[in-house]
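Residues determine shape. We examine one folded chain.
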Amino acid sequence: MGSLNAEPLLSFEGLADGALVEVEAVLDGDSESLVVHRQGDAVRAWLNVCPHAGRRLDWAPGQFLKSREGLLVCAAHGASFELEGGQCVAGPCRGDALRAVALEVRDGQVWLAATPGDAA
């Protein structure tokens, strides 16, 4: 996936530990909704799309459901995803995974990670 974002996605310090937030990013020329999750010093992101039916994961823009077990829950059909690698562990798409988007933290900001072929 190529990155065309000239600006950071968000501030690392502004992202609370354990938080799930939505950000918009340009991927391969298209604007996409991403789910971003911080766990300690790690920041992960996935496309905001459930692999079960292709619907958004949030129940309202930027509002995500999290189970007592700490799983991201799809608001449409209840699929539950672990937040280490985005694997579906319960629900209609068990065994599938969210589509990961590589991030990096630079100078206190969260950026899309550069991928081979990106302009330097």
Observations:
- The CA atoms of residues 71 and 82 lie 5 Å apart.
- The chain is about 0% helix and 40% strand.
- The mean pLDDT is 91.
- The first strand starts at residue 10 and ends at 11.
